[in-house]
């Protein structure tokens, strides 16, 4: 008998306690696949886990999350993804230290400017309408049909080894005619800094791959005048806004890696000091 759900968890060194908590909150009836290969970055870990799976549906969830028995988040996600036309179901992520406040409720992307807007970010989950709603992108914890994941070829770990991989696969799935949906009754709790409209990065590596991923996303999905219009008009705005935000936050150490990521993306450079070889 085929396993219904395989839960794929890319794990990081130093977060063993968080991983143990997450594993303890996933029912034993679901397959659990932990990928803790330190020679791989996030997206390669997800793909490696997906190659080991046996489930009809794949739940990707990062190791700094945990679930609760009620309101049965995995079962609620299954209820939605089994409906016709649904390709991906995102979990609502609430802050682990403020479990009634939403950290991530999915995102909408402006494909002209490249900027995203969070849906229900920092809203109150108890007050949220529990009807599923469409978004452009999910992150952190989400379920995908296995056959659909295999049809897409999985995550693009060449262009997006750390950041923007969810944006890329969601767009590819939407182009195939499927919907991307958030289910407010599928909840996880995420150890996260409070989200703000003014961007920030905890590590130099995250800054590098965010800047790099933005350019790689435009290069892959925008064509002709659209790409060059984006690069010539909106990229300078993106650079100014992010750099000003990091200066305002006095997070000076991540500014250079962020700019390096952008310019490496423009040059099509694949090698960097953050990526295992």
List the helices and strands and how they pair.
Blueprint: E1 3-10, H1 16-24, E2 31-35, H2 42-52, E3 55-61, E4 65-66, H3 73-81, E5 86-95, E6 102-104, E7 107-109, E8 116-118, E9 133-134, E10 141-145, H4 146-152, H5 165-175, E11 179-190, H6 204-221, H7 225-248, H8 255-267
Helix pairs in contact: 6-8
Description:
This protein is an alpha/beta fold and 277 residues long. It has 2 domains: 3-190, Spore Coat Polysaccharide Biosynthesis Protein SpsA, Chain A (Alpha-Beta Complex), CATH 3.90.550.60; 204-267. It contains 8 helices and 11 strands. The protein has helices at 16-24, 42-52, 73-81, 146-152, 165-175, 204-221, 225-248, 255-267; strands spanning 3-10, 31-35, 55-61, 65-66, 86-95, 102-104, 107-109, 116-118, 133-134, 141-145, 179-190. Strands 1, 2, 3, 4, 5, 6, 9, 10 and 11 form a 9-stranded mixed beta sheet that branches. It has a two-stranded antiparallel ribbon with strand order 7-8. Helix 6 (204-221) runs parallel beside helix 8. The longest helix has 24 residues, at 225-248.
